[in-house]
């Protein structure tokens, strides 16, 4: 079988390689998450310092930004969804930029809000943190993906469109 669409091979090879890219995602998105989060928190809490990946609020509350806070798996899922549809490279670049920027922004706001809640001893902090982490992050990714589809008028379905194309190509 000789495929008439070599981009399928390239996209899925990239996907295979990128599955192991979480250390790179952490390297890129950790500072992109921590420093804006610190800046937002400083708007509300004057004495805020950063020691490595820990934000100290008024020398009394420590907020450690652990790898799970960075949510590399969410970026990876957005990347996988993006690479599993056949679109032009420039459109792919724009959809990735939009998806990553939106998720980064929402994640920074999530961490900033939770940090301020923790500092103020919000009584429902633990449940809020867990809900925003488990449910909120999933909703963020789904909402971002659907918004991307709508804004860029994407008509294809991740994986399904490629499988359909390959099956048609076999016949």
Question: Count of DSSP helices?
Answer: 7
Total domain count: 1
Strand content: 5-15%
Beta-strand segment tally: 3
Counting copies of identical and different chains, the oligomeric state is: single chain
User: Order of strands across the biggest sheet?
Assistant: 1-2-3
* Separation, N- and C-terminal Cα atoms: 9 Å
Give unreliable regions as ranges.
none
- What's the gyration radius in Å? 19 Å
Task: Characterize the overall form.
Answer: elongated
State the helicity in percent bands.
over 70%
Structural classification: mainly alpha
Biggest pleated-sheet summary: 3 strands, antiparallel
H and E order: HHEEEHHHHH
- Overall mean pLDDT stands at 88
Mind explaining what this structure looks like?
The chain is mostly helical and 171 residues long. A 3-stranded antiparallel beta sheet has the order 1-2-3, with helices on one face. The protein has one domain. The chain starts with 5 loop residues before the first helix and ends with a helix. It has helices spanning 6-18, 22-44, 67-70, 72-83, 89-119, 125-151, 160-170; strands at residues 48-51, 54-57, 61-64. It has 7 helices and 3 strands. Helix 2 crosses helix 4 (72-83) and helix 4 (72-83) runs antiparallel to helix 5 (89-119).
């Amino acid at each position: 079988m000789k495929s008439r669409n070599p981009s399928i091979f390239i996209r899925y090879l990239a996907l295979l390689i990128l599955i192991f890219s979480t250390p790179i995602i952490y390297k890129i998105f950790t500072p992109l998450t921590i420093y804006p989060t610190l800046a937002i928190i400083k708007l509300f809490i004057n004495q805020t310092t950063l020691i490595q990946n820990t934000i100290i609020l008024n020398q009394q509350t420590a907020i450690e930004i652990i790898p799970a806070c960075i949510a590399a798996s969410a970026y990876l899922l957005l990347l996988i969804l993006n690479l599993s549809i056949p679109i032009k490279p420039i459109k792919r670049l724009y959809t990735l930029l939009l998806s990553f920027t939106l998720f980064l922004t929402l994640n920074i706001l999530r961490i900033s809000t939770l940090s301020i809640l923790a500092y103020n001893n919000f009584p429902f902090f633990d449940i809020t943190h867990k809900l925003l982490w488990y449910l909120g992050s999933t909703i963020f990714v789904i909402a971002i993906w659907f918004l991307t589809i709508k804004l860029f008028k994407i008509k294809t379905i991740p994986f399904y469109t490629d499988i359909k194309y390959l099956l048609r190509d076999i016949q």
